[in-house]
Write a structure and sequence with these properties.
The protein is an alpha+beta fold. Helix content is 19%, strand content 31%. One of its GO terms (molecular function) is peptidyl-prolyl cis-trans isomerase activity.
Length: 324
């Protein structure tokens, strides 16, 4: 189910007509690699181990398996410092991703981190063939081999991460109330599964019938930065159990419990919106990845596991258009 959530960003983009077809072809630029991985290893005097895929690995510390070991489906927070083979630092960021869910690019790094323990520090030497190959970014030459120093900060089980992101969504709902200056006596209703409804307590919830919802969607990243992805967007609810309700799972939970003819807010845990999204290493490549269609353009500033906030401008009884 988690892997299918990664398709939500593409579905959302199609639904809201935000997705732009990739117009920039893969550009290959000649680049002379100054040193091979083998020469780098030979000159390092460190006990690197060559991996079957051609990369190299050096374990600096072992970490504590009792605190968590990376396996499929677990959410990982890790500091990744990226260098070229001239040992020039080109990126330094804490990255978050769901292991083996196709949410971490390059994917070879995702695979390489399976089995690492919380607190472990590992150095990977990644050949360009397992990284970005001959793809030439403005800020990264083609055919660049990478050294990636990884410190595993936290390994969350699925249950532990779910509890954290539900708490983030509830906190955002309470922040909305604290910042509201409309004079309304708003309250938060827990709709279940990490979806929270900030509403007028005197309103009456709608039955499970067709409805039209219009409003704006923002995302709040875990670093507290906020980004508006969609404005004045319209969604239709087709009725309970209708297979056309497949855009964002959080809305399917919310629609039958919302109040007609009332403004308000919905906050959703990332698992109810678009889940892990995509983590790009080095992180500064996200913008060009979006520009070139590698990741969804509308989500370039929405980092993995951001909490969704939907401002409800209108919710009325309305049959969906005949062509929907």
């Amino acid at each position: 189910m988690m892997q299918s959530k990664l398709l939500f960003s593409a579905i959302i983009l199609a639904l809201f007509m935000f997705f732009q077809a990739c117009k920039a072809p893969m550009v290959e630029r000649e680049n002379v690699v100054s040193i091979s991985l083998e020469d780098y290893v030979a000159g390092s005097n460190l006990p690197y181990e060559k991996q079957p895929n051609g990369s190299y690995k050096y374990e600096e510390t072992t970490g504590d398996p009792d605190l968590g070991t990376i396996s499929s489906g677990m959410v990982v927070e890790a500091r990744m410092v990226v260098y070229n083979l001239e040992d020039q630092e080109i990126d330094n960021a804490v990255q978050r991703f769901r292991s083996l869910s196709e949410a971490l690019l390059p994917r070879s790094l995702d695979t390489a981190m399976v089995g690492l323990n919380q607190g472990q520090s590992v150095r990977f030497l990644v050949p360009s063939s397992l990284a970005w190959k001959s793809y030439a970014f403005d800020l990264l030459p083609s055919d660049t081999h990478l050294r990636i120093d990884v410190e595993v900060l936290t390994v969350f089980s699925e249950a532990a991460w779910e509890a954290r992101e539900f708490a983030e969504a509830e906190q955002l709902a309470n922040e909305v109330i604290a910042s509201d200056n409309s004079g309304q006596n708003l309250e938060v209703e827990d709709l279940g599964r990490g979806v929270y409804y900030v509403k007028d307590p005197l309103g009456v919830s709608a039955p499970s019938v067709y409805g039209r919802l219009r409003g704006d969607m923002d995302f709040k990243n875990l670093d507290q930065s906020q980004y508006t992805a969609f404005t004045d967007s319209t969604l239709y609810y087709y009725g309970a159990g209708d297979e056309r309700n497949n855009y964002i799972e959080g809305f399917i939970h919310a629609f039958p419990k919302m109040q007609y003819n009332k403004t308000g807010y919905l906050t959703m845990a990332s698992s109810m919106a678009y889940d892990a999204s995509v983590t790009v290493v080095p992180s500064f490549l996200r913008a060009q990845c979006a520009e070139d269609g590698i990741i969804a353009p509308a989500f370039v500033n929405v980092l993995p596991f951001a909490t969704a906030l939907f401002t409800i401008e209108e919710y009325v009884k309305a049959n969906p258009p005949a062509n929907n």
